[in-house]
Each structure stands twice: as C-alpha cells, then as structure tokens.
Amino acid sequence: MIHRDQLVAACDHQLRASEFKDFTINGLQVAGGEQVKRIMTGVTACQALLDEAVAWQADMVLVHHGYFWKNEPVAITGMKQRRIKTLLDHDISLLAYHLPLDAHAEMGNNAELARHLGWKVEGCIDGALGQGLLWSGRLPQPHSVSALAAQIAQTLQREPLVIEAPQVGDIERIAWCTGGAQDMITDAYEAGAQAFVSGEISERTTHLAREMGIHYIAAGHHATERYGVQALGEWLSDEYDVEHRFVDIDNPA
After folding, report:
1. Which phi and psi angles does 93 have, rounded to 5°?
2. For this UniProt entry, which segments traverse the membrane (predicted)?
3. Model confidence, pTM
C-alpha cells in the first residue's frame, strides 16, 4: 500500500509530465482515497472500465485517455457526471497520462508497440528519443506490406486497414506513432520511411500515401495504445508493491 500522492509524484517524475504541452491534464484528475493498494489500468476511462474497477475494489484507475480535454464542455453533466460520480462514490482516484505515455522511451506506447512487433528503434523524427512522438526504425528483415500487416494483425488481434503504395517494394525502414497520428505521414515519408504505422486514418491519408509513395497501415487507435499503460502499471506494481490489473475494454476503433 502506498499514499496516493507519492504514487502520483512517482508517475509524474518518471513520465516527465510537466514537460509536455498537451490537450488535457496529465496526472491526477480525480482524487479518491489517500491509500492505494489496487490499481486498475485501461486505455480509456470509460464507464465500463470504471464498473470493472468498482467490482474489483480498485483504489485507483490509471489510463491513457482520461477527462478534461481542451475545448470540451466544462459542465459536469450527463455521461461525464455519471463517470465522475462513480469515482467519487467509491473513493477511486483517476490518474491519466496522454502524450507523456506516448513518448516514454522505455514503457511508452511507441516503445511498447515496437517491442511487441520486434522493430529496431533508431530514434525519433520529431525530437529526442523519449520526447518525440514520431518514432523511426527498421524491421528485423525486409517484409512486404502484406506480410507486415499480417504480423500486426496477429500481434494486436485486430485486422489493420492497409493503404499500399504500388511504387514501393519491400519494407526495411519504418516509422510509427500510436493513436490518432495519421497526419504525421508526410514527416515519415520525408524522413525516408517506406511504411508508416499509426492508429487511425482520414480520407486524405489514402491519397497522401499513394501519391507520395509510402505504405500506410492504420492498426487501430485503441489497439496500438494498449501496451504503454500496462507497462506503467507493472512498473508501479514492482516498485511500490501494489496490485495491478489491466482490463481491455473492447474497442474496434
């Protein structure tokens, strides 16, 4: 068991939360009880995850997608009211890290995606490793885009959407950014990547990929961002002797 504020401070420090300009609050978003024994992790603090936390008698919920996003309505009504009421009624804290958890060099979403897929990390295109969000590297051996897509589907247990650039052959150099980063495709191409992997796709992404000449694989926002929060939860469990449980709330997007 650990004091809530000590655990929050450890996460803030490990992820360098104060260094990121983000669209939301990174860190403690809702304060529950002071003592934490059980931490439940998940991608998004949806009602289904909160219900699982209540049933498990969790003291804290730790997520990648929390609340209080830029430009969202500030009134605590409707869905937001029900979610926050669930936390407060059961004295559960909500801890959330967005960009800091994408960027972390060892247990961030990008680092963990590369580890699960066996990609060799060479650096970040948009900043130092551990600070940038657009990662680059190489496959362990050249793959066709169909072979790479099949590996991603098997590993993530989700069929990706593939936009093939006909003029590009086998892939050696790859770039990736988890989540909704489809507009980084131009930067990936200009850095020499033959394929770019992210979570989502926009209508324009198809034309960019085909006309520039870079394969694009949309592997799912949720699917590509399941691993960072699990790694952070396991780190907390090892460092502070708290119980950790990850719950994957199904989300095809």
Report:
1. -85, 150
2. none
3. 0.97
Q: What are phi and psi of 136, to 5 degrees?
A: -135, 155
Kindly report the length of the chain: 253
CA torsion 68-227-178-104 (nearest 10°) is 80
**C-alpha closest to that of 233 among 40, 104, 92:** 40
Residue 207 counted as an annotated binding residue: no
Residue 52 assigned as binding residue: no
CA-closest candidate to residue 114, choices 169, 171, 177, 160: 177
Place of tokens 């003291």: 59
Superfamily covering domain 2-97+225-246? NIF3 (NGG1p interacting factor 3)-like (3.40.1390.30)
Percent of the chain with pLDDT over 90: 99
Q: What is the pLDDT of residues 195-209, one digit of tens each?
A: 999 999 999 999 999
User: Is 65 assigned a ligand-binding role in the annotation?
Assistant: yes
* Residue whose pair of structure tokens reads 């809702």 in the numeric block: 30
- The rounded distance, in Å, linking the Cα atoms of 190 and 60 is 42
Place of tokens 């969790």: 58
